[in-house]
Amino acid sequence: MSTTPYAGQILGEFVAASRWEAISPALRHEATRSILNHIGCALGVAQDPAVTTALAVMRQTAGAPVATVFGQSVKLDAMSAAFVNCIAGNLLDYDDTHLQTVIHPSAPVAPAALALAEQRGFSGAQVLHAFLLGAEVECRIGNAVSPGHYARGWHITSTCGGFGSAVAAAKLLGLTAGQTWHAIGIAASQSAGLVENLPSAAKNVGMGNAARNGMLAALFAQQGYQAAPAAIEGPLGWARAMGDAPDVAQITAGLGSRWEIARNTYKPYPAGIVFHAVIDACLALRAQLGVAPEAIASVEVAGDQLLQDRGDRVVRNERDARVSIHHSAALGFVRGRAGVADFELPAVADAALAAFRAKVVARLDTSLPRGAATVTARLLDGREATLTVTAPVGSIDNPMSDAALEAKFLDNAGLGGFAARAPAMLRAAWGLEAAPDVTSLMATLA
Amino acid sequence: MSTTPYAGQILGEFVAASRWEAISPALRHEATRSILNHIGCALGVAQDPAVTTALAVMRQTAGAPVATVFGQSVKLDAMSAAFVNCIAGNLLDYDDTHLQTVIHPSAPVAPAALALAEQRGFSGAQVLHAFLLGAEVECRIGNAVSPGHYARGWHITSTCGGFGSAVAAAKLLGLTAGQTWHAIGIAASQSAGLVENLPSAAKNVGMGNAARNGMLAALFAQQGYQAAPAAIEGPLGWARAMGDAPDVAQITAGLGSRWEIARNTYKPYPAGIVFHAVIDACLALRAQLGVAPEAIASVEVAGDQLLQDRGDRVVRNERDARVSIHHSAALGFVRGRAGVADFELPAVADAALAAFRAKVVARLDTSLPRGAATVTARLLDGREATLTVTAPVGSIDNPMSDAALEAKFLDNAGLGGFAARAPAMLRAAWGLEAAPDVTSLMATLA
Q1: Does residue A67 sit in helix, strand or coil?
Q2: Residue A356 sits in the same domain as residue A427
Q3: What is the number of other CB atoms lying within 10 angstroms of the CB of residue B152?
C-alpha cells in the first residue's frame, strides 16, 4: 500500500467513524427534508406507467417481499424495492439537485437506506445518518469529475448514485472502514448511465441500478469481496475512465467540515432548474401588474447562454414544456402557477397557453449569471414592467421553506392518488428522526 | 428518425430475423464448443470462495429458485443464477477469448441464455441460437471501440458482455426487432467494469452484472421500455463516452456473412494467452531433448514487447504465475504440463519450479508477432536447442480439437470435485443442440 492514503480509504474511514451524535441539528434537518421531498416525488408518480412497469419487471425475479414500494400494494426484496423507488423519486426530475454537479442526491441513496432499514429493523436516525454519508460521498465524487464527466455523456446521478447507495448500505450494515473502502471500489465497477438515454425510459434503468447495485456492492464487501485500492483514482480506474481531467483531491478536501447536503436544493416547479427564475419573475410581474393575459402584448425573457440553448424551442410535448422559456412564462402569466399538471399534455395543448407562448421572445444576456432571468412585460396599453430574479425560490440563496416543502409533498401525494392519506404520510416523514424503526413510516407509504 | 439506420436498429432487425435453420453446421458446432468450454471452466471453480461467496450474497435477495448454479445444490432466480455462473465461468480467465477485442464471449452470454431457457422451457437449439447472436453483437460492439476502450480502463468483457446477454435474452423471449433495438440501448445504460479492478474480486461483480443486467434490459424492453435511438453511436452515447475514437461502422459491417464466434478461441492452459506459445515451445523442447530439468543450464524466452512487459516478473502468488514467462517455461520443462493446479500456490512455492524459474531469461525480439515466442534451451553439456512457436495450441490457426476440449472439460470437472459425474456432464453438454429443453442438462450440472 502507498503511504499516501487512497481516496476510497479516506472515505471508508470517515464513514465508519462517523457518529450521529456529532451531526449538527441543521444537517439532520436537511437530511430529513431531502428524504421527505424524495418520498413526495415518488408518491406523485405512483400510477405512472414507467413506475408500474418497473415494478412488474422486478417482480419477475424479486426475492422475499420485505421492502415497501412507495404507493404500491406489493413489497419486493430490498434491492428490487430500492430500484423501483429510485426510479419513482427521479422520474420527473422534480427531486432535489446538488447544483455543482447536477446530481439528484436522494433518489439513489434514500431508497437503498429505507429498504435495508425496513428489512433489518434499523432506526429512522440510522437511515438519516446513512443517507447523509451516502449523499456526501456521492456528491464529492461527482465534484471531482465535473463538468467533464457529464459533458462526455455520463448521467452523473446514475454513475455517482451507486457510490451513495453503497456507502449508505455500508453504514447501516456496520461495515468496517476497510469494507466500506471496498464497497466504494466495487461500486466503481458498476457505475453506468448515459446522457444520450435521458429522453428515454432507459434512463430509469440506469437510475434504478444505482440504488440496487450500490446496495449489492455493500453486501459483497460485507462478505469479504475486495476492490483494487485505487479503484477511483488509479491509472485505469473510475475517475480517468469516466472523467475528462478529474480533480480527485476534491473527493476528500474538507471532509467532515463542509457537507454537500447543506448545499442541496429542492424544486418548487417540475421544470428544468434554469427555468425557475423565469417562472418566479413572471409570477411576480403577474401579481404586480394585475392584468389579464390578453392585456399583455409581449414578454421578453433574457438569460445566459444555457437558458437560451435549452429553452428557446417549439413545445410539442411534456418534455419540451419542462424546458421551455415560452411555456414557463405562459404558466406564470396565464395560470399563476407551475405544478406538475401544468407541464402535462393537456397544458401543452391548452389554447390560452399556446397563444401566450407565441408572445414570448427569448434574448441572450451574457451579463446575467447562470440560473438568473430578466423578464420584461409590455402591455397593449403601452405600460412596461421589468423584473430580474437571480435567486429563484429553491436556489441555495432562497431555499424552499419547510412549509413550501410540505405543500409540495401534499400536492405530489394528491397527484399520486393519496390525497386522503397525504397528511398522515407527511407526519410520518417528518417523524423519521425520532422513529425507533421505519416500519410505521413504510406502512403509511404503502 | 434519421434515414440512415441506427446501429442498434440494424442489430435488432438482424437478431429478430435470424433463423436457426440458416445457421451453418460449423457455426452451430462452434457455439456448442463455446458453451461446453464455459461450463467446464465454471465447474472447475465451483468450490472457490469467490463463487460460493457470490452465491451466498445473491441468495439474500434472490427470487423463486428456477435456475441452476453450476456445481451447486441450490437454485436461484434466472438473473441471479446468470450472475453467479458468469463469475464462475470467467474466474480464472481460463474461458474463451475473442482475440481482436480480448473479450471472453461466453461468460456473460451463455449463463443468461441457459438460465432463461431453464426457467421457461426453451430448447437447446434455441439456447445455442440465442448465444450465437448474443456473442456476435457483444464482439462486434467490442470491435468498434477497440483498442481505445480497454486502454482507457474499461474491462471489455464486462462492458460489452451486457449487450450479449441482452441480445441472447431478447432472442429467447421472442422480442421484435424494435424491442431488441431498445434492449441493446437499455444495456448501454448499464455497461460498466474497470480494468483497475481486474486484480480484485470487484472484477467478478462487474462480470456478473453483465449477465444479470443484460437480461434485465431484455425484460424491460419486453414490457415496453425504450432507449434513445442512437444510444450506441449518439453524441452523448455509449461509444463516445466509453471509447476513444470508436469506429461504429464495424458494428454492422458484414453482419450475417462474417461471424465473430467463428474466431473464438479456447485456452489449453489457464495462463495469460500470450504465454501459451512459451508453454508449447517448452513442452516440445522437453520432449525433443529428453533430459531432466537439472541438465538444463539456462532458457532464453524471446517475444514481443507485450510478452516482455507482462511476463518478465517476480512470481509471488497465483496471479503472478499466470502471467509469468519464467513460471510458464518452468512448467514446460519441469512438469511437462500446465494445468490449473500448476499455477496455484503450492506450485508457486515448489522448490524445483522456483529453481528452474531462476534459470529463465526474457529477451525482447520485435521481429516476432504478437502471441509468438522463441525458446532457446542451453544444456550443461553444451548442447543447445531452439524452437519458435507462432501458432500455439488454442490460437485461431491451431484451434483446440474437440478431443482436447473434452480433456480440458473433464480436468476442470475433476478439479471442481465432479470427477465421477464428469463424463455424464460432458455428454449432456455435447447433446445440447438436440435437447428439447435444457432441464436434463442443468440437472446433470447441479
Answers
A1: strand
A2: no
A3: 17
Domain that holds residue A233: 7-266+401-445
| SS3 sequence of A291-309 | CCHHHEEEEEEEECHHHHH
| Three-state DSSP class for residue B72 | coil
**Same domain assignment for residues A298 and A430:** no
| Composition of chain A by helix, strand, coil, percent to 5 | 60, 10, 35
β-pair type (B360-364, A97-98): unpaired
- Note the pLDDT of residue A202: 97
Q: Spell out which residues of chain B touch residue A57, defining contact as CB-CB under 8 Å.
A: 216, 219-220, 223, 225
Instruction: Inspect the interface and report whether the beta carbons of B189 and A158 lie closer than 8 Å.
Output: yes
Chain-chain contact of B227 with A53 (C-beta, under 8 angstroms): no
Task: Tell me the shortest Cα–Cα distance from B203 to chain A, in angstroms.
Answer: 7
Assess B114–A contact: CB distance below 8 Å, yes or no.
no
Contact A153 B186 (CB under 8 A): no
User: What pLDDT sits at residue A3?
Assistant: 53
- Answer whether residue B146 is part of any domain: yes
C-alpha cell at A134: 451516502
Residue finishing a domain among A389, A415, A437: A389
Give the pLDDT confidence score for residue B176 in this predicted structure: 98
B244 and B367 assigned to the same domain: no
Residue B217 sits in the same domain as residue B360: no
In B, which residues are within 8 Å of A179 by CB distance? none
Assess if residue A409 is contained within a domain.
Answer: yes
Residue A142: which of A124, A123, A163, A169 has the closest Cα? A163
β-pair partners for B363: B302
What pLDDT is recorded for position B1?
Answer: 42
Here the CATH number for the domain that contains residue A355 is: 3.30.1330.120
Question: What pLDDT, on the 0 to 100 scale, is given for residue A4?
Answer: 75
B246 to chain A, minimum CA–CA distance in Å? 14
Residue A236 DSSP symbol: T
Start-to-end CA distance of chain A, whole Å, equals 48
Report the amino acid identity of residue B78. Answer: A
Do A211 and A124 belong to one domain? Answer: yes
Q: Is residue B419 part of a domain?
A: yes
- Residue B387's DSSP bridge partners are B375
Indicate whether B174 and B293 sit together in one domain. Answer: no
Q: Which residues of chain A have pLDDT under 70?
A: 1-3
Mean pLDDT computed over every residue of chain B: 96
Our CA-based measurement puts residue B290 at a distance from the nearest CA of chain A, in whole angstroms, of 44
Find the largest Cα–Cα distance for chain B.
Answer: 76
pLDDT < 70 stretches in chain B: 1-3
What's the total number of domains in chain A? 2
pTM of the model: 0.95
For residue B201, list chain A residues with Cβ-Cβ distance below 8 A: 186, 220, 224-227
Residues of A within 8 A of B228 (CB-CB) are 194, 196-200, 202
A153–chain B Cβ distance below 8 A for any pair: yes
Q: Are residues A227 and A294 in the same domain?
A: no
Report the half-sphere exposure of B398 (CA within 13 A, side-chain side).
14
| ipTM value | 0.94
Q: Give chain A positions within 8 Å (CB) of B67.
A: none
**Inter-chain residue contact A231 with B57, CB threshold 8 Å:** no
- Per the domain annotation, does A108 fall within a domain? yes
Domain harbouring B96, CATH code: 1.10.4100.10
Among candidates A158, A231, A241 on the partner chain, residue whose Cβ is nearest the Cβ of B202: A231
Rounded to whole angstroms, the Cα distance separating A293 from A445 reads: 40
Q: Identify the pLDDT of residue A169.
A: 98
Per-residue pLDDT at A244 = 86
Q: Residue B128 corresponds to which cell in the numbers above?
A: 445455442
Residues 190-229 of A with CB under 8 A from B: 190-206, 209, 213, 216-217, 219-220, 223-228
Question: Residue A38, class by beta-carbon neighbours within 10 Å (0-12 exposed, 13-18 middle, 19+ buried)?
Answer: buried
pLDDT of residue B3: 53
